Amino acid sequence: MPTTTHFQCGRFRYARDQRPLVMGILNVTPDSFSDGGQHATRDAALRHAEKLIAEGVDMIDIGGESSRPGAEPLSLQAELDRVMPIVEALHDCGKPLSIDTYKPEVMRAALDAGADLINDIWGFRRPGAIEAVAGGNAGLCVMHMQRDPETMQESPSYADLMGEVETFLCAQTEALMAAGVAAERISLDPGFGFGKTPDHNLTMLNRLAEFNRIGLPLLVGLSRKSTLGAVLGGKPPAERVTASVAAALLAAERGAFIVRVHDVRPTVEAIQLWWAMRHERADPPVA
């Protein structure tokens, strides 16, 4: 597997030796586990995007379908109706636009509208997904998930957690590259919370650096997830902000290149401080 020095993300290109990027979550769904309904309308979604940009976000991840445990699938047309107006409205906002989808038809429509990254919880396993993204220069995020969103949290188990996740990520990367996708377009997400117990998630976070040997940038999403609630004694998502920032920082320290978060400003500031400390300068190079 080749080790990349840059991450090509559509219209944007990032050197991998810069500080980790903060991806802000923009859910245009009525049923997200953390902020369902708050940004479901076009105007509300655009206001939230403006807030993310003002808080220093590096990229925006737009999702039209909830992937919370037990979520029921959304129809193709409903997802297009939710996502496409936001992609079109934010195209010139100055930030890369990521689309959180597993449907090849949505991938194609979003890419045609200028999206910069496709973030697929199915890891481009569904029929037609690889063909939908093979052309062009959009970034791709391959995520590991055991089973599917409806069943993934029904007693997830592994004989070798780290090995099985790594094997899947490598296999899907090889499938993409065999279809002509350049390695520098690919990023990897071990899939925290997707077919994993809290203990699985904590193991992956602690040993995250092991995935760096694959040679591709890592994207980590732990923001407000139930594992943090379990560690905090059952606190609800809105009360997991501090733990979410800590998790993002721990992930960055272990090699994550992109952290996907709800709470942008505190995460950006924490990573800026960590990066400045690493370089022993108050004004180190930033993204």
TrEMBL record:
* Gene Ontology terms for molecular function: dihydropteroate synthase activity; metal ion binding
Which InterPro entries does the UniProt record give? DHP_synth-like, DHP_synth_dom, Dihydropteroate_synth-like_sf, Pterin-binding_dom
**Pathway entry:** Cofactor biosynthesis; tetrahydrofolate biosynthesis; 7,8-dihydrofolate from 2-amino-4-hydroxy-6-hydroxymethyl-7,8-dihydropteridine diphosphate and 4-aminobenzoate: step 1/2
Swiss-Prot/TrEMBL cofactor(s): Mg(2+)
Q: Which keywords does this Swiss-Prot/TrEMBL entry list?
A: Folate biosynthesis, Magnesium, Metal-binding, Transferase
Broad class of enzyme this protein falls into = transferase
EC no. given is 2.5.1.15
PROSITE patterns the record matches: DHPS_1 (PS00792), DHPS_2 (PS00793), PTERIN_BINDING (PS50972)
GO terms in the biological process aspect are: folic acid biosynthetic process; tetrahydrofolate biosynthetic process
Q: Which GO terms describe its cellular component?
A: cytosol
List each copy of the Pterin-binding domain by range: 20-272
This molecule's function is given as:
Catalyzes the condensation of para-aminobenzoate (pABA) with 6-hydroxymethyl-7,8-dihydropterin diphosphate (DHPt-PP) to form 7,8-dihydropteroate (H2Pte), the immediate precursor of folate derivatives.
Q: Which family does it belong to?
A: Belongs to the DHPS family.
PANTHER family named among the record's database cross-references: FOLATE SYNTHESIS PROTEINS, FOLIC ACID SYNTHESIS PROTEIN FOL1
The entry's protein name is Dihydropteroate synthase
Recorded source organism is: Ralstonia chuxiongensis
Could you tell me the gene encoding this protein? folP
